[in-house]
Design brief:
Elements lengths: L7 E3 L2 E4 L2 E2 L3 E2 L4 E4 L13 E3 L10 H18 L7 E6 L5 H5 L5 H6 L3 E4 L6 H7 L14 H11 L7 E6 L10 H4 L2
Parallel strand pairs: 6-7
Antiparallel strand pairs: 1-2, 2-5, 3-4, 7-9, 8-9
Length: 185
C-alpha cells in the first residue's frame, strides 16, 4: 500500500520517518526531542560526490583506501569548510541488489558499509549501465554474468527497478569494514 512521509517540527521536537541504512524508509514514525539528534548532512554541507569507474573491481580494501585518500587530500588542500561525507546516487546503490546478489559479492559487501537511502527515481539507468543497451530490452539482453542474470530475473518477474543513493560520513572512516551503520540501528 502507498503511504507518504512527512517531517514536521512540533514545538521542540521533530516528527518523521527514519531512513533505514539498508535503503528504505521505515513505516513507523518517530518523534525526537531537539537535544536528542543533530543535523549531520544539512542542506549545503560540504560533500564529495563519488563516481565509480566502469569495469573496476570494487573491493572493500580499494574503497577504504580511496575514501582515506579523499579525506586526506581535502583536509590538506581544502580544510575549510570541512568535507562531511562522500555521497553518490547510482543504480549500483539500489537496495534491490542486496537481495539479488550473493552476500559475499564485492558490491554487496561495499553496500553494507554505506548508509543507503531510497531514491525517488524509477529510472532505467541501472539496466542501461549494466547492459549498455539503448533502448533496453530484457528479452534480448545478455545473461552472461550473475549480475545481469539477477537483474533480468527481477525485471522479468514484473518488479520495478529503483536506483539508490548513499552517503558515508568521513568521521566514520575508522569504522569502515565493520558495517557500522547497520550496527547502529
Amino acid at each position: 500500500s502507498l503511504w507518504q512521509t512527512a517531517l514536521k517540527r512540533i514545538g521542540h521536537s521533530v516528527h518523521g520517518y527514519p531512513i533505514n541504512p539498508r535503503g528504505f524508509v521505515e513505516r513507523d514514525p518517530v518523534t525526537l526531542k531537539e537535544g536528542d539528534w543533530e543535523y549531520v548532512l544539512e542542506k549545503g554541507a560540504p560533500i564529495l560526490e563519488m563516481h565509480i569507474t566502469a569495469g573496476e573491481r570494487i573491493t572493500l580494501e580499494r574503497c577504504a583506501e580511496s575514501f582515506r585518500k579523499a579525506k586526506q587530500f581535502f583536509q590538506r588542500h581544502f580544510p575549510a569548510p570541512a568535507v562531511r561525507a562522500i555521497v553518490s546516487s547510482s543504480w549500483m546503490f539500489s537496495p534491490i541488489l542486496e537481495g539479488l546478489l550473493p552476500a559475499d559479492s564485492n558490491l554487496v559487501r561495499f553496500m553494507r558499509e554505506l548508509y543507503l537511502c531510497p531514491s525517488n527515481s524509477r529510472s532505467r539507468s541501472g539496466p542501461w549501465f549494466v547492459f549498455l543497451q539503448e533502448p533496453f530490452d530484457p528479452a534480448t539482453a545478455p545473461r552472461d554474468t550473475s549480475l545481469r542474470r539477477a537483474i533480468l530475473d527481477h525485471l522479468r518477474a514484473g518488479k520495478l527497478w529503483r536506483d539508490g543513493e548513499m552517503f558515508f560520513l568521513l568521521d566514520d572512516l575508522d569504522h569502515f569494514g565493520s558495517q557500522w551503520y547497520r550496527k547502529s540501528t
